[in-house]
Structure formats: C-alpha cells, structure tokens
C-alpha cells in the first residue's frame, strides 16, 4: 500500500491523540474562543453559495499505468503539468490500473505528467524502457551525496513559472514517516520537451530545516496571476508537537524572477507585523500564521467572484472545501463544502487540486483529489 502524504499522516496521528481525551469538535470550538490576535480565524461571508457539483470520473494516463497521489498543477511555457507524489507502478504488462493485481510492482516518490484537453487523461513523462508498458521515472532526483536514498519522498505542491522559460517546484524532503529534513526548491527546465529538475538548492538539498522553520511550500504553492509573486504555505516546524500549534500554517513569498535566491524571500508575520524580507518565522502561533487546520490544496484567482479561492479537503475527511479572500494574506472566509467523496476501500481522501485553465471565466472550477491512490475529478458550476 502507498504511504499517504507525510502532512496528512502526521495530522491523523495528532487527531488520534486528541480524540483519545477530548472530542475533536469541542477541541476546535475551544480554539475559537481564544480571543483577539488570531489572524487565522474565518472572517466575513463566503460568496460561494449557489453551485452545482458533478462527478466526472477517475484520472489515468494514456501512455503508462500506475496508482498515484497529489497531482498539483502548474504552468510552464504555455502548457499545464501535474506533479504527482508517490507513484506506484502497475504490474508489468498491465495497461489498466483497475486490473492491477495485488502486490508491489515498483515505486517512484514523485512524477510529472502533461495535462490534456480531457482532464480524465494525462500523458506521463520521463518514462523508462519497460515493455510493453513503460513506467515513470522520478521527477525530483535524490542525491546520494546528501545522504539521500531512493526511498526518500519529495512530493511537490505545483510547478510555478519563474523567468526565461524556467520554473520551480517546491518539495519536502522526508526520510520516512517520522523524519522530515526540510523544505526545498528545485529549478525546472524543459529538456527534450519534458519538465526536468536541473538544480536543487541548499547545501543539503533544502533551504528551510523542518525542525526549526515552517515547511514552506508543503501545504500549497501559488504563482499569482495578479502580481509577480510566488506564494508558498507551510506547516509548523516538526519540533512543535502540541496539537493546536502544530496545525498553524505559515506564508512566504518571492518575486518569481528571484525564486532561486533565498535572500529575496519575504515572510508574512501577521496583520500587525506584515512582510519581513530574509526573516523566516521564529515565533509560531495565531498572530504569525495565516491559516489553521487545513489539508494540502491549491489557490486560484476567480474572475467570477473577484477573489482568491483556496481548494482543499477536510483533514482526515472527504469533504471538498472552498474558502475565499480578497488578499492572499487573508483573512479568509469560512469554508463552503461543495462535495463529499466516498473513500475507496476505506482509504484516505486528501489533496485538493485546482484546474483553473479549463475555464478562465471562473464560472466553473474543475477539481481533482486523491482517493486511496486514485485521482478523482469533479466540476463545480457557480451561480450568483
């Protein structure tokens, strides 16, 4: 069985601990009563109130065969790609994932695919020489010089365009379910027509050590079409083990052209302190965080509602949720549930992925998510 994303796995572990003593709804309600100074509390009214949601089906590749998770989308030189996390190859010769026999047949920790006009079909890239069905090679390469192994995870949260036709992928280096090293950035260029990680930054392949700084980029990454900025959201340092404080999410940004220069990154220290260049968070809690209690997801700008929308799934649940804000920094409105996924074989549902390029008017928003290592797709049609 595939390992679920580290972010969700650690979250569920926290939930198990909390539910052992205090019912979760009461626990969340207690947090809401903490008073002022909390920049992460929902504010205002969500304009998304009238909508219809249609289930479209499962997403698969037209040139390979695997089970996978994530699939966060991003644009590079006019084409859209999906960055998947754990990618489990189907058995040799199997071309239909639904007919894959039980057992382990091979795995890479992340992969990249080209989006097609049909959202239920992707074209896998970086394929090996397996016959008759080729399988994906790893997208973010591990580096043995940094004491990394092929078992290390690098699931990325979107390909974002930087400058001169290049891009960046933000990833979290994790040894195993209990050891996260840090969050990093890789430069992505088109090599033989395929997005390829040509450089990883940092002396050990990452910039932000997980024990002491937020895991910037692990929750979400967004290239803002209304500015020159790339925004990255990350969970609390791993040294924070208290349930409430461990669920705060922190925000950083950089001019897209400066994405490979760590000194140019700015960090959002809350509504009072604002942005601080070159000063990663060292204080953690409701005054310096931007959101609380959310799974991995994606942000889009909606011309239909004239605001930003955050697409995500309820942590540990199957609800597809949308929250809105007129500013990336927030505050954000309460979530609106647009769909509830039925878990496949009792598995996990997580990772809300947005596909805004399919309708630039914003009247519809197509969303995919992971359901027990299957990628399912829905389309939400909005009305006012």
Notes on the structure:
This protein has helices at 6-19, 24-32, 243-246; strands spanning 50-61, 66-76, 79-89, 107-108, 111-115, 121-124, 156-161, 167-176, 179-191, 194-200, 208-209, 220-223, 229-235, 248-255, 266-268, 275-277, 291-292, 297-302, 307-313, 319-325, 336-340, 349-355, 364-371, 374-383. A hairpin with an 8-residue loop joins strand 22 (349-355) and strand 23. The protein is globular. The chain has one domain (6-383): Glycosyl hydrolase domain, family 43 (Tachylectin-2, Chain A, 5 Propeller). With 384 residues, it is mainly beta. The strands form 4 sheets. Strands 1, 2, 3, 4, 5, 6, 22, 23 and 24 form a 9-stranded mixed sheet that branches. Strands 12, 13, 14, 15, 16 and 17 form a 6-stranded antiparallel sheet that branches. The termini are far apart.
Descriptive key words:
single chain, 384 residues, mainly beta, Tachylectin-2, Chain A, 9-stranded mixed sheet, 6-stranded antiparallel sheet, 3 helices, 24 strands
**Helical element count?**
3
Low-confidence stretches: 1-27
Counted beta strands: 24
The helix content, as a percent range, equals under 10%
Order of helices and strands: HHEEEEEEEEEEEEEHEEEEEEEEEEE
CATH architecture term: 5 Propeller
CATH class: Mainly Beta
Mean pLDDT: 91
Distance between the termini: 43 Å
CATH topology: Tachylectin-2, Chain A
Task: Assess the beta-strand content as a share of residues.
Answer: 35-45%
Fourth-tier CATH superfamily name: Glycosyl hydrolase domain, family 43
Cα Rg: 20 Å
User: What characterizes the major β-sheet?
Assistant: 9 strands, mixed
Number of domains: 1
Quaternary structure state of the chains depicted: single chain
Overall body shape:
globular
User: What structural category do the secondary elements indicate?
Assistant: mainly beta
């Amino acid at each position: 069985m595939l390992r679920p994303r580290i972010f969700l796995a650690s979250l569920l572990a926290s939930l198990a601990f909390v539910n052992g003593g205090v019912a979760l709804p009461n626990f969340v309600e207690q947090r809401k009563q903490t008073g002022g100074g909390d920049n992460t509390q929902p504010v205002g009214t969500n304009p998304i109130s009238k909508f219809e949601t249609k289930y479209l089906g499962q997403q698969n590749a037209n040139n390979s065969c695997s089970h996978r998770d994530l699939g966060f989308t991003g644009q590079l030189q006019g084409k859209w790609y999906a960055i998947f996390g754990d990618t489990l190859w189907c058995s040799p010769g199997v071309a239909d994932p639904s007919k894959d026999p039980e057992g382990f047949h091979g795995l890479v920790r992340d992969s990249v695919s080209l989006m097609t006009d049909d959202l239920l079909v992707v074209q896998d890239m970086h394929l090996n020489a397996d016959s008759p069905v080729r399988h994906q090679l790893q997208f973010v390469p591990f580096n043995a010089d940094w004491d990394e192994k092929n078992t290390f995870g690098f699931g990325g949260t979107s390909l974002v365009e930087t400058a001169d036709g290049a891009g960046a992928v933000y990833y979290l280096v994790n040894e195993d379910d209990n050891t996260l090293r840090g969050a990093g950035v890789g430069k992505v260029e088109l090599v033989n027509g395929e997005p390829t990680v040509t450089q990883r930054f940092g002396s050990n392949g990452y910039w932000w050590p997980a024990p002491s700084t937020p895991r910037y980029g692990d929750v979400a990454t967004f290239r803002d079409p209304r500015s020159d900025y790339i925004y990255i959201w990350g969970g609390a340092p791993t040294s924070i083990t208290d349930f409430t404080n461990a669920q705060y999410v922190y925000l950083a940004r950089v001019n897209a052209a400066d994405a490979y220069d760590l000194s140019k990154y700015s960090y959002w220290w809350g509504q009072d302190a604002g942005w601080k260049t070159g000063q990663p968070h060292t204080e953690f809690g409701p005054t310096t965080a931007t959101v609380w209690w959310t799974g991995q997801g994606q942000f889009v700008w909606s011309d239909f509602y004239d605001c930003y929308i955050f697409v995500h799934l309820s942590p540990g649940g199957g609800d597809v949720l949308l929250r809105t804000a007129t500013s990336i920094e927030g505050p954000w409105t309460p979530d609106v549930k647009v769909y509830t996924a039925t878990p496949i074989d009792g598995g996990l549902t997580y990772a809300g992925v947005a596909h805004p390029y399919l309708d630039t008017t914003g009247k519809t928003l197509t969303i995919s998510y992971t359901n027990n290592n299957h990628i399912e797709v829905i389309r939400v049609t909005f009305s006012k």
